[in-house]
Amino acid sequence: MGVHLVEITLDVGALMRFLKDARMEPRRDDEDLGYGIHTWLVSAFGPLSPKPWRLFMARRRPAKILGYAPHDAEALREQLNVYATPGAYQVLPHSESSILSKPMPEFTRGRLLAFEVLTVPIARKSSGGEAGDKTIEKDLFLHHVEQNGGKAEASRAELYGRWVKKLLEEREATVVHAARLEGFRLVRQARYTHGKERKRRQIVRPQALIRGELTVNDPEAFSALLAHGIGRHRAFGYGMLLLRPVR
């Protein structure tokens, strides 16, 4: 079926109305929209929802989602027009121009590429509480400090870069020549329980922008890597590889 790069242009006003109706509107300027957009994508496209994806918002420019999917724009438009709720449909009132796609090429072995990825660099660990083990997520750097008796044997940038390199080189898909931390901040993420009485909780997680260069080692494995994304929370706007020529 192949991998398609999908571009979706959003009506932000209609998106915020959709989130408000679903009781998911952001309450702080530094709160990300990952969970809300994930909910909208599922409502709009169901099982065809792009994943991984990334949101791009800037002043005086239309908000856009870029994502990878096994389905092209025509299939997404049909799913939206037939099955989406009216509220979800209003976020894309002009689906012919609001949903675009292109098939991704199969990159040859040895192809040198620059990459960019927005990630949530976290480690999973057991809490070891009295009520039974519970898996929790912790900033990869803070986990490293904790594991080394309160001392950092590597910088945040080094740890995050190594982590991304390891994920990209899994299954020998690529050889990574560099993975640099280009941006870091803590973001507030809202999560909601399911059911009639939806409860809201807010968590703070690290967000890291990594850029670097890689060589394609296994074309088939690399295509699978693009379609899958890297790291956790890929359904919420993280882990999508953007590719550029090496300058």
TrEMBL record:
Q: Which Gene3D superfamilies match?
A: Crispr-associated protein, domain 2
- Do you know which Pfam families this protein is assigned to? CRISPR_assoc (PF08798)
The record's InterPro entries line, in alphabetical order, gives: CRISPR-assoc_prot_Cse3
Q: Could you name the domain of life of the organism this protein comes from? A: Bacteria
Which NCBIfam families does the record cross-reference, listed alphabetically? casE_Cse3 (TIGR01907)
What is the protein name for this chain? CRISPR-associated protein, Cse3 family
User: What organism is this sequence from?
Assistant: Hydrogenibacillus schlegelii
